[in-house]
Specification:
471 residues, Growth Hormone, Chain: A, single chain, mainly alpha, globular
Length: 471
């Protein structure tokens, strides 16, 4: 009996020791995963920050940029021309989506992201040193357009790559919250651009802004891009992607870099069309509310430019504060429910909110209150969309599917939104045109979401429709 007790104690002691050693051995692995996730988050954040800092600066400085590059046009056409260049920069987005998506699926997320940020920040920096119309005539506008198109090409791999990268790194139960860092970084870039432009408008006169002040935000992209490139080069690719690569045949990767596109076209075309439809609402709402809105408040509602920019800065602050909470809610309730709720809110509230703003009679607090409501509705969509798109495609075509649907929507509807609504207001004289436009797009997105089927909370290792249940 005593011998049996001693043996039992010995076995139990051995098991406890083994468990302790196992826990000690696995703890560093958990720590390493946490560190890797933190690095992935930083790498995903900085590229989108630079991209949207540039877009914010361009949008908020559109009037001044119009004077610098299109001085022979009358005032309204100067702004319209600046927004036309803004829209034209999106022409290469679908091309960039195809190229960066294929490269990201074939050679890795990290590889694609490290190059996209370098090209994007480089072209943005060159805009900052570009001579104006007074120096080189219409060549200034042509070069501005070319640089914006290069920036659009490289940026097309940025949001999709960061969303895919972070979704694959994040634990399934918290994927929505972690991936919401991607839209949060875009809004932070917009907010930083808004605050910088607001500060510049306060401390600089019109002559200084038009002469050299407008260049400062674009010049900052140079050093920021080099920092982002350094961070990304020193990352490992996502565990999900590495696991997929290990299962692939051993032929050289360069033998068929377009294979992800072929698989996407043959096996997932329906998913691309649906996710394109879902992305349309994000494309229009994001650019209308967070990029075009300062121009609308200034030119259509009659507020000063710095006041309009300040109001949008408040909206952006609310957006950033709420975006992670919406990502968390998508983890709890599912992506489709959150996206449908956002569509319903846009359909029901967009026209009334714009109507209230246009009849605010100079009451700034009313305009700000309406913009805050818009920010909350938008975060329900944006805090969910990146995760939704990542979960809509299997690993071998995830980057390509995400990039093509997201950038296709942004090229067709997002980048053209400021131009379209500015032109429609000019033609019709109706200041509620943006509201009608946004409501129509929300209806289209609602139809697409209803037809979607996305895996919620899967490990992102199975093909869509296998191994997990919807919502």
């Amino acid at each position: 009996m005593r011998a049996h007790m001693i043996a039992s104690c010995t076995v139990e002691s051995t098991n406890m020791s083994t468990n302790a050693n196992h826990q000690h051995a696995t703890h560093p692995d958990e720590h390493e995963r946490a560190v890797a996730l933190s690095r992935a988050a930083k790498a995903s954040f900085i590229g989108n920050f630079i991209e949207w800092f540039d877009y914010a600066s361009y949008g908020y400085l559109a009037v001044i940029i119009g004077r610098v590059f299109f001085p022979e046009s009358e005032s309204g056409l100067q702004t319209l021309s600046a927004f036309a260049v803004f829209a034209m920069s999106f022409i290469l987005r679908p091309v960039g989506a195809v190229v960066w998506g294929a490269w990201g699926d074939r050679w890795g997320r990290r590889w694609a992201l490290s190059w996209s940020i370098l090209i994007m920040s480089g072209s943005t920096f060159l805009i900052g040193i570009l001579p104006g119309f007074a120096a080189i005539g219409w060549w200034a506008a042509i070069l501005l357009l070319l640089l914006r198109m290069v920036q659009g090409f490289s940026a097309s791999g940025e949001y999709a790559g960061a969303g895919t990268f972070l979704a694959e790194y994040a634990p399934a139960s918290k994927r929505g919250m972690y991936t919401s860092l991607v839209p949060a970084s875009t809004a932070t870039g917009l907010l930083a651009g808004s605050l910088m432009v607001s500060g510049m408008l306060v401390v600089m006169d019109d002559a200084a802004m038009q002469s050299w002040g407008w260049r400062i935000p674009f010049l900052l992209a140079g050093p920021l891009g080099l920092i982002g490139r350094y961070i990304r080069v020193h990352l490992e690719d996502s565990p999900v992607y590495q696991a997929m690569v290990e299962e692939l045949p051993s032929e050289p990767k360069s033998s068929n870099w377009a294979e992800p596109l072929r698989l996407l076209a043959y096996n997932h075309l329906g998913d691309v069309l649906i996710t394109f439809g879902v992305s349309c609402l994000n494309a229009v709402a994001f650019y209308m509310l967070l990029s075009y809105m300062p121009t609308y408040v200034h030119e259509e509602l009659g507020f000063s430019q710095d006041t309009a920019t300040m109001a949008t800065s408040i909206m952006l602050t609310v957006y950033i504060a709420a975006i992670f909470f919406m990502g968390h809610l998508s983890d709890s309730f599912g992506r489709r429910k959150m996206l449908i709720a956002a569509c319903v809110a846009f359909i029901v509230l967009t026209v009334p909110l714009f109507y209230v703003m246009t009849h605010a009679a100079g009451m700034l607090w009313v305009v700000i209150a309406c913009q805050i409501v818009f920010a909350l509705i938008l975060t329900a969509n944006d805090g969910t969309l990146a995760t939704f798109l990542a979960e809509s495609f299997p690993t071998n075509v995830r980057y390509s599917g995400f990039a093509l649907s997201f950038n296709g929507a942004n090229a067709l509807l997002g980048g053209t939104t400021p131009l379209i609504v500015t032109w429609l207001i000019k033609v019709t004289g109706v200041t509620l045109v943006p509201a009608f436009y946004l409501t129509a797009v929300a209806i289209i997105a609602m139809i697409a979401i209803v037809k979607s089927r996305v895996i919620h909370g899967s490990e992102l290792t199975e093909a869509v429709g296998e191994g997990a249940s919807d919502e």
